[in-house]
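User: Before I run my own analysis I want an independent prediction to cross-check against. Here's the chain; please return only the structure tokens and, at the end, one sentence I can use as a sanity check.
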Amino acid sequence: MKRSFLGVLLLGLCAIWISDARADPPIKYAIAVHGGAGNGWLRLDGEERIEVHTSIKQAVIIGRDILAKGGTSLDAVEQVIRHLEDDPIFNAGKGAVFNSAGGHELDASIMDGRGRSCGAVAGVKTVRNPISLARLVMTRTRHVFLSSDGADVFAKEMNVDLVDQKYFWTQRRYDAWQRVKAKQKDDHKGTVGCVALDSHGNLAAGTSTGGLTNKLYGRIGDSPIVGAGTYADNNTCAVSCTGVGEHYIRNAIAYDVSARMAYRKQPVEDAVSEIFEKTLIADKGQVGGIIAVTHDGKITMQFNTKAMARGAADSSGRFDVVLVAD
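Assistant: Structure tokens:
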């Protein structure tokens, strides 16, 4: 018995409806967080690992709750990183590492994927939360990047929380400085970052760090450099990097992730994987990590060190916090 054209059409439409009904709903919001990549995480004792896990988990919750309530990706990124800057276990804010002069110089950047507006600060010495100052550079000036004394002066003008250098001092970072001075080697863990997609379809990214232990006075890494350590574009993805900053600067890594998606049509997972396989291959593969979230909510968190503190959540119910193993 032959089916009528109308019958076949109805069957086809029914099949499409059933298929759509079974498909996963689109991701409304998504967030990923990192607390730095480096082999040093493996040397933490059980109690310290719990502290890191708890702090990353709280950071993810802070960001997720902002996004779930309809908040912006920029607010989520800023508040997540402020939380991590205030936690001395990470190399940002309170727990910033020592430079070669025995002081602390902090860097941060933030980027809005809507129009690629961005703000950054480098070498600040009195700012409790550099990520917030970076956002003020973006929203309250015609500039993108302020550094050193000029950034600290701007911080006073903006009435942000200022602290003495002693605020950043921790015994753990001081001891690490002494070890690095003796060995001239740094395991580069502790930089913090966040990427987010909000329910309005906007992406944002931010990164904050104290840099490398025993770095030369005035050294600036990738974290405050838009395109190297931080990048966001609503058409592609939001990216935050961690690791040996010089490698990320030389290769414009954060932008490269976005460019591969835009020009080569690579999925974000493949783009980041190829960067680690073909670009970030110095130091026998021990370079760092990258987190990214796409315009449709896909998340990737990859690294080529032995560990990276990281976490992620999205509107589907995903919630992950991982310290070392995949």
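Sanity check: The first helix runs from residue 5 to 22.
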